[in-house]
């Protein structure tokens, strides 16, 4: 995977303007209703999707961008933010109840994506959620982004498909595909 520091630093600086309280509430409420007590966002950026989780949760975020992590740690000091890659997640097997991505998988090359999915599966204890821009047959959008069909990526894993629908525009205006899986 090619890492464009300038692109991601700029993305981090603009991340606060992308804060979507409805999505953050949705994610918190979903993890809570599924009786989860630990959460990890991979590609957490500045941590905007984790900010509404109560301190009764073990809150974790992973990102490869130091600048984003500095902002995340400042805004949400109760969380455990670490620098790391989706291909080598620093967690024990089945140790995180609810693992999710939001707009990350579209930026990964195929090799990184496949390794990342294996790592997510390895560390997930109960549930996996991907909210990613969707295209049934996958579609390259530009040099940085490819719309994905995440459901198809999970077919070889021992998971139960709970949901695979477009997000409602009131929760997420871009209407990414919401894929929820229960690890078996």
Write up this protein:
It is built from 5 helices and 9 strands, in the order ααββαββαβββαββ. With 184 residues, the chain is an alpha/beta fold. It has one domain (5-183): Vaccinia Virus protein VP39 (Rossmann fold), CATH 3.40.50.150. Strands 3-2-1-4-5-9-8 form a 7-stranded mixed β-sheet, with helices on both faces. The longest helix has 14 residues, at 110-123. The mean pLDDT is 90.
Summarize the structure.
With 184 residues, the protein is an alpha/beta fold. The chain has helices spanning 5-14, 21-33, 66-75, 110-123, 150-153; strands spanning 38-42, 58-63, 80-83, 96-102, 124-132, 139-142, 145-147, 159-166, 177-183. It is built from 5 helices and 9 strands.
What string gives the helices and strands in order?
Answer: HHEEHEEHEEEHEE
Give the full name of the CATH homologous superfamily: Vaccinia Virus protein VP39
Identify the CATH class.
Alpha Beta
Task: Give the neighbour order of strands across the main sheet.
Answer: 3-2-1-4-5-9-8
Strand % is: 25-35%
- Kindly, what is the distance between the CA atoms of the first and last residues, rounded to a whole number of angstroms? 30 Å
| Gross CATH architecture | 3-Layer(aba) Sandwich
Rg for CA atoms: 15 Å
Percent helix, as a range, is 25-40%
Overall pLDDT metric:
90
Number of helices: 5
pLDDT under 50 segments (min length 5)?
none
Backbone shape: globular
Count structural domains: 1
Beta-strand segment tally: 9
CATH topology descriptor:
Rossmann fold
Largest sheet: 7 strands, mixed
SS class: alpha/beta
């Amino acid at each position: 995977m090619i890492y464009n520091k300038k692109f991601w630093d700029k993305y981090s600086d603009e991340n606060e303007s992308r804060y979507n309280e409805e999505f953050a509430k949705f994610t918190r409420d979903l993890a809570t209703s599924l009786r989860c007590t630990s959460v990890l966002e991979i590609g957490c950026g500045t941590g905007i999707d984790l900010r509404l989780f109560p301190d009764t949760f073990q809150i974790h975020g992973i990102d490869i961008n130091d600048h984003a992590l500095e902002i995340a740690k400042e805004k949400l000091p109760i969380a455990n933010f670490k620098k790391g890659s989706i291909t080598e997640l620093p967690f024990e097997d089945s140790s995180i109840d609810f693992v999710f991505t939001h707009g990350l998988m579209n930026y990964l090359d195929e090799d990184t994506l496949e390794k990342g999915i294996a790592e997510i599966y390895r560390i997930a204890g109960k549930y996996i959620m991907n909210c990613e821009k969707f295209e049934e047959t996958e579609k390259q959008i530009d040099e940085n982004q490819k719309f994905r069909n995440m459901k198809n990526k999970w077919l070889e894993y021992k998971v139960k498909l709970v949901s695979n629908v477009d997000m409602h525009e009131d929760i997420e205006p871009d209407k990414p595909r919401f894929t929820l899986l229960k690890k078996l």
